[in-house]
Design brief:
Shape: globular
Helix content: over 70%
Number of helices: 15
Structural class: mainly alpha
Strand content: under 5%
Distance between the termini: 18 Å
Largest sheet: none
Order of helices and strands: HHHHHHHHHHHHHHH
Length: 283
């Protein structure tokens, strides 16, 4: 992907090393998560988009959405990329983005019909609908976990909070889609970081969702080694704050829920700083 984007072979090697030698991706993968397979499918969708092969891009993005629902957020920037950044550019509807949408929808219908035939409504509920009502009160880095915890065990009602949590997430994803679609790798990375930060459920494997995209963006970022190191340290400090209080709550069974909530806010703030640095330094 970096090579087809005009970057040097050295940049490609550095980008590959950022993923392959990353202790977070290695650690999460040893738990049995199949996130790396999802990442491979998403990167194929991006690769074929950069190669202007719209049908293949739509097929692999559709497959990614079948594996995990969240890659649906990539459909708008890729559609806009085919509309304005390819040979048929400056036309909102052209043959390439029609091929992209057609391939995406056709495969979705085929996969949905096939698995619905096998598993029935249970497949639809657990693959798609469950994510809109899901609430995790353990192992959750999101600040929303505390509200969900109170709602589940202390406060009756207030179900509207589950849906309000989608608003800042959806707004920022839409804004980044419109503003950065021409820099597709940067756009998808920013979208994913925002999605993970503001999602009401955020666990360790969610970090992989943007860690396999970050290597594609570093040649486009004017970040010095000092700045990059500072951002990485800030991220680990934010996560360390949560892990410390999370250990007390989940392993020692101590009542540190409010402290863990503030630790989650600190972690969210550190990731917001990283987004601001990306936006400021992106060229």
């Amino acid at each position: 992907l970096l090579t087809c984007g005009g970057h040097s072979h050295k940049s490609s090697l550095i980008g590959a090393a950022m993923w392959l030698l990353n202790p977070i991706s290695a650690g999460v993968s040893t738990r049995g998560n199949a996130e790396s397979l999802l990442g491979w499918v998403i990167l194929l969708a991006v690769y074929f988009a950069k190669k202007e092969k719209a049908m293949f891009s739509g097929i692999f993005l559709s497959l990614a959405v079948h594996l995990k629902l969240y890659p649906i957020i990539y459909s708008l920037p890729i559609f806009l990329y085919f509309a304005y950044c390819t040979a048929d550019q400056h036309r909102f509807v052209n043959m390439k983005n029609l091929q992209f949408v057609g391939a995406f929808l056709l495969l979705q219908v085929v996969l949905l019909g096939f698995f619905y035939h096998i598993y029935g409504y249970q497949f639809v509920y657990e693959t798609y609908l469950y994510h809109f009502i899901r609430s995790d009160t353990r192992h959750n880095f999101s600040p929303y976990f505390y509200v969900l915890y109170l709602q589940k065990y202390v406060i009756e009602g207030a179900s509207i909070l589950r849906f309000i949590s989608f608003l800042p997430q959806a707004l920022l994803i839409f804004v980044f889609s419109i503003k950065y679609f021409s820099q597709l790798e940067v756009c998808l990375t920013l979208q994913t970081i925002v999605f993970v930060i503001f999602n009401k459920v955020s666990t360790s494997q969610y970090f992989l969702w943007y860690l396999w995209l970050v290597p594609l963006t570093y040649p486009s970022l004017r970040l010095s080694l000092k700045e990059s190191t500072a951002l990485a340290v800030m991220w680990f400090i934010g996560q360390g704050c949560w892990l410390g209080t999370g250990y007390l709550v989940e392993f020692e069974c101590l009542n540190y829920f409010l402290s863990m909530h503030f630790a989650a806010l600190i972690f969210m703030l550190s990731q917001c700083v990283i987004i601001c640095a990306f936006v400021k330094r992106c060229r």
